[in-house]
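Structure in, sequence out. Go:
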């Protein structure tokens, strides 16, 4: 039996009752976090553009565009909500995937789930299965796949979203193989577009692609049934020099479930995760030593080998570029002593004091921090003052990682802050209540009514 068939058997056969409570709890929290940042993303310029675009397309009104106040077809709702979910780069991460796991999945879960009127339990089941698929595929093709320049959130996320669709639609094993094959031909997204609106579009496109793949497979549309492992299939084409092991994708499916182990990292800052350890360090230094921007001679930031490949904007001019700029994150962390949504806007990036500090930041690969990958992500920040004193802080893993989790109050506070950017207080509270007890929800349509 081939890899794709084994994957399809897992997708079709895995049920909510077979999932450990720890996986369900982790999934519920991740879904809550993703919904919150999606609502906030509706107020972002890219969120407004994608909302206007799908409104223009029209479509059968069966699935809600979050924050938009209207419904459209489920694929286009997934496109809009996925794009908004990644607009602020505030959504979760996972090590195995080397990307953002929830943002291709949650829009697919709720767009198709709303059309079908599924329960919260069924939504969780589909999410956990989709998460497992995209994360285990990450184990098969990374780090080579990511280093080659692919945005794994999109290229792997489309398979996760297809698994979501297959689960919600109740596809057979053979139909699921077709859905995975269709998804493979929609896998796309290059990392050069980091720092632009197209990066969040990658996530929306993956969510839409997965929904389309499952819906087409349900209608009898065909694809190659062994698309993951064959010589012209996904693993071969999307890696360099054959550096992959397709069998890893199915070796330990659900043992353990990836959503629980290694788990999900939630973000306290709306910027690339590779900036977070350094931001933790800079904020700790400013709190302990009351550093003034005028006192700084230079700032050195030691990182792992992957960071310079992802943080590609050393002289940013926009808020989006600032999310992928270690230089900006260090500067704004020192100037504002915080890194919230309001810090990653054009006016902040273009400020004279910040721009002068950006020139003083040197990011380098620290010899002690290992090779490429999105593992624990250590960083060492040293602020050299003009009086000759040097202040150093090392952070081995960023706050919000599974080993250093956000507290429940921090998670719900982030949700309320994000959702409150668009929704009134009553809808914020009601949607939070539903998400925190998602498995008890009889119909996800009740939740979606509170997200516009």
């Amino acid at each position: 039996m081939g890899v794709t068939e084994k994957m399809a058997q897992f997708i079709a056969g895995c049920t909510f009752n077979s999932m450990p409570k720890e996986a369900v709890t982790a999934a519920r929290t991740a879904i809550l976090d993703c919904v919150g940042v999606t609502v906030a993303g509706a107020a972002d310029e890219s969120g407004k553009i994608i909302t206007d675009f799908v409104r223009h397309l029209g479509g059968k009104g069966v699935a809600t565009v979050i924050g938009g106040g209207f419904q459209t077809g489920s694929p286009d709702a997934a496109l809009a909500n996925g794009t908004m979910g990644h607009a602020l780069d505030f959504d979760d991460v996972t090590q195995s995937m080397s990307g953002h796991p929830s943002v291709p999945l949650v829009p697919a879960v709720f767009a198709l789930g709303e059309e079908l009127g599924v329960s919260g339990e069924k939504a969780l089941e589909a999410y956990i299965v989709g998460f497992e698929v995209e994360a285990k595929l990450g184990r098969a093709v990374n780090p080579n796949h990511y280093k080659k320049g692919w945005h794994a959130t999109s290229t792997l996320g489309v398979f996760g979203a297809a698994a979501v669709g297959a689960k919600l639609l109740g596809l057979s094993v053979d139909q699921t193989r077709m859905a995975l094959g269709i998804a493979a031909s929609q896998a796309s997204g290059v990392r050069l577009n980091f720092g632009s609106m197209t990066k969040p579009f990658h996530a929306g496109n993956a969510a839409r692609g997965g929904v389309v793949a499952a819906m087409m497979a349900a209608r009898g549309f065909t694809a190659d049934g062994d698309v993951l492992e064959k010589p012209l299939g996904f693993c071969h084409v999307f890696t360099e020099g054959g550096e992959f092991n397709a069998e890893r994708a199915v070796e330990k499916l659900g043992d353990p479930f990836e959503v629980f182990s290694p788990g999900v990292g939630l973000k306290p800052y709306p910027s690339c995760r590779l900036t977070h350890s350094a931001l933790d360090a800079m904020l700790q230094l400013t709190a302990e030593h009351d550093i003034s921007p005028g006192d700084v001679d230079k700032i050195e930031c030691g990182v792992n080998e992957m960071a310079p490949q992802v943080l590609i904007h050393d002289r940013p001019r926009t808020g989006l570029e600032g999310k992928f700029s270690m230089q900006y994150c260090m500067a704004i962390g020192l100037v504002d002593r915080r890194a919230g949504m309001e810090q990653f806007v054009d006016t902040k990036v273009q400020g004279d004091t910040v721009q002068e500090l950006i020139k003083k930041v040197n990011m380098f690969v620290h010899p002690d921090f290992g090779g490429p990958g999105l593992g624990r992500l250590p960083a060492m920040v040293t602020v050299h003052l003009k009086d000759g004193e040097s202040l150093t802080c090392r952070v081995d893993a960023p706050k919000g990682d599974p080993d250093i989790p956000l507290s429940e109050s921090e998670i719900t506070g982030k949700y309320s802050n994000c959702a409150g950017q668009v929704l009134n207080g009553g809808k914020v509270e009601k949607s939070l209540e539903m998400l925190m007890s998602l498995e008890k929800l009889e119909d996800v349509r009740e939740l979606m009514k509170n997200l516009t």
